[in-house]
Structures are given as structure tokens and as C-alpha cells.
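Hi everyone,

Forwarding the result from last night's run.
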Amino acid sequence: MKLTDVLPSGADSPARKTFFQKVLIRYAIRRNTLYCRITVDRIRCKNDFSINERVKRPKNPQRVADGEWDTKRQRIKGSGPEAIVINARLDSITAQLKAIGLELSNRGVHYTAETIKRIFVGEEKLTYSFIDASQKHIDYLRALPQDEIAPATTRSYLTRHNNMVEFLKAKGLSGITCEEFSPTIARQFIQYMRVERVPTVSTSYAGKNLEMARKVIKFAINQEWIKFNPLQAFVIKKGKHRMPPYLSEEELTVLTMRVFDIDRLQKIKDCFLFACHTGLSYKDIKAFAASKHLILANGVNWIEMSRIKTGIDFYVPLSAVAMAILKRYGGEQLPVPSNVKFNAYLKEIQHLCRIQTGLTVKVARTTFGVVMLNDMNQDLETVSKMLGHASTKITERHYTQVLKRKIVRNLVTNNPTLYESL
């Protein structure tokens, strides 16, 4: 029987109980060789095991000389290099043995001294199920400082973890290990997310969830829980990339010119237009304060902030339209409601203005990127910096929609004679 057969999985054991058992580690000399003795709840292991360290037996137990074994202190007497190395190894072995006992306790397993010994010497393997490894991966991410990983990223991984748990439970695979997460299971997961699950999701979203599984497996390899990656050669197919929606020049003009009698709609419209002219995301607009983030340099007002999502610095010159909107509300902050209300009121504005493009806070940010690349003729690197992207590849993938008006303008500029009729 494998140890994994008696270890409950995190997904299947919501009422898991933690057992706190007393683990005692002692060392004894036999033929000048140190042996380790494990005791759990006063019950000793049947056979002690050698740790392959030779020491001198004390001639007089009352007066232990340098280099001899001190039974009472469980240490090599003296401060020489050999004594320091052996004592450090004893501390390491003791810590490893107690860590095994603690891990078994956390899993709700009632263990014996023999169990700890078999795991330590390699006769048994302390194996994590995929679900447990995924949970430990999330715990590891949560422990990282926010400048290394944003909380939103960790929450995203938790959502994908829950989706994977749902799939494995539905297929009766809750107990599989990372090594058993084969390409066949990966394909079953894609099928489950795209067809069987309610509601179904896109191929792109299913692929992102599967990327999480690959990261969990790599995490398990780094922790030396497994030795190979079963998804190493598996290719995760990505859905066809679609340009995110943005406002056309005509739609942006209609929205700018429209004045609402209802105060809440006018405030939402102004906040949305401010995002269209600055590229700020919802969280960034919510956190924006002119006294902290507005800098006057060379006669130009600049927004200098760090993105709430990623912590990346970005710089955006404030246009006259954006400055007028900011002054309309006191010049410090904008009246930004909750994200849910913001998007709900935008739907109302979309209906009243008869705009075809679905209005969301994200649409404003995309509109800014498209306008900067097409109408303002800014280069990719500049726009990437203004949007606060970690790489120009992100900007290139999501914002490089080349519009016909830009093509025409460039043709006329570069070839005025050939394209003068344009």
C-alpha cells in the first residue's frame, strides 16, 4: 500500500482533522556509529537507522572529552570543524523528521514512528495530489510581497484552481498526482470547460486555466516532489485573437457632445471620457488624486502613477479635455462609483446615445491605446509606457489595430503626388 492511499485529498476532505502527535528524535552510539531513534507518542520505531557518522564513545560518561559523544546534550563535544559539521547535520535530520510528522498531521493522517522512518529513508514517498500541490502553490504566491506578484494575479490563480478542482471532482480524479496529470487529462479538461461545463467558456479562457496546471507541475518539480513534467510536450491551443472593442471616432464624438440632465449619468460619462483621454483602468481612476499623481513639467500636466494591478510606473500627459473634466469636479478626484455601478450606468448611456459598441471601463482604455497609435501616430514603445504595460508585446497584441484612416494619412504624407486624390 502506498502512503498516498491513506492521505486524504484537500478537495475530498472538507472536515479534515489535524492530529498533533509528539515526535521525539534521539541519537545513540553503536560500534562508534551514530543511529537515529524515532519515537511517536512514546512508541519507538522497531529498528533504528544509521546516519553514517562515526564518533568516539565517551570513556567516562561523567567527563566527556572533545570529539566524543555527549548523550545528555545529544551533541559532539567541542568546537572543532568536525564537531560543527556533525552537529549541524544532526539538527538538519531532526528538522526533516519533525517536518514529515507535521506534514502528515496537516493532512489529517495518524502516523507512527515507522511511517516517518520509511518516508525519510525513501522506502515510502510523501506524494502530494495535484489539488494539494495547487493549493500549496497558491499559498506560496500569497506569501510573496506585492511588488513581485499583484493580489489580482493571485486571485486569478485561485479562480483557476477552483475550476480545476471542479473538473477533477466531476471526473473522479481528485486523488491524481502531478505526475499523473497526462495530456489525455489536459484534453479532457479543455473539453469539459468548452462543452460540458455550465456555463461554457472560450478556448482562450480554458487554455489559461490549463496554463495554471502547467505552472503547478513546474512548482512541484522545483519542490522536488516529482521528477518530470507530463505536460512538457503538450501544446495548449490558444483561441483566435480578437481585437478588444473600442469606440470609433464618430462614437467618441457623439459621447463627448452629449449632455445628460441626470447627474449620475453625466458623472459616469465624464469619468469614462477621462479614461478615454488618459488610458487609466478602473482601479487607477479610483486611486487617482491630483495632489499625488499630477505633476507639472515643461508647461505640461503629467499623470505619474504606478498601476494598481501590476505596480508598473506609467506617465500620461493630461489633455485639455481631461483637465476640464477634472476641474469640473474640484480638480482633485473624480466621482468614481463601484465597478458594478460604473458598468451598469455605462449600459444606460450606451442605449441613450445609440452607440453600437458595448460600453465598459475597459473599452475606454482600449480606445485610448487605439487613438494614440492611429490618430496621434505615437510609436508602440511610447504607447506601451503610457499604458503601463510590462512589455511592448502586450501592447502589440491588444492595441495595434491599424485603421484605414491611418493608412490613408501615411500614404498621402509619403506619396503626395501618387495619392493626392485621397
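The radius of gyration is 32 Å.

Cheers,
N.
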